[in-house]
Amino acid sequence: MMKKILLLILLIPGLLYSQNKLFYVETNAGVSTTVNYEDEVVDIVDMSVTYENNDKFMGSLSVGTYIPMGDYSLIDVQLSLSYPYILSGRVGVGSYYGEREQIAIILGVRPYPLTGYVQLNIRPNTGLHFTVCGEIGTGSDISLGTRSIFNFGLRYPIKGKG
Question: What is the CATH number of the domain that holds 113?
Fold first, then answer.
């Protein structure tokens, strides 16, 4: 329970008090590869579901903000409801590329389950953003057995105040 409280304490201020309040809603679907513990199927304490096979479907619905820092750099903060991890989030830093800042590459960390990630964000002229993300975990308890996550997503920007 303390992990979840710490996650909320770390991520919510970034979501609520960002400089420019450029919010978005994102949905992702992909595959997660885990190390399995045979004696554990559903773990309510860690809010995770472990299957008998090593690959499982992963999906999430996120609310986030990206904070432009000038000179083509940004900070990205997300808070997610996801399956199978129930509550998750990510914090990353990155850079825009292109004349109209249509491509961004973000490197960061997911505190729960603990993984490092790299995300490619492509913004065509339609308003929707397409995301491709790869994550690597340790496979130990701190990563909830997660070794890798690979997903695709759609990000819908919401114009914020400010």
Answer: 2.40.160
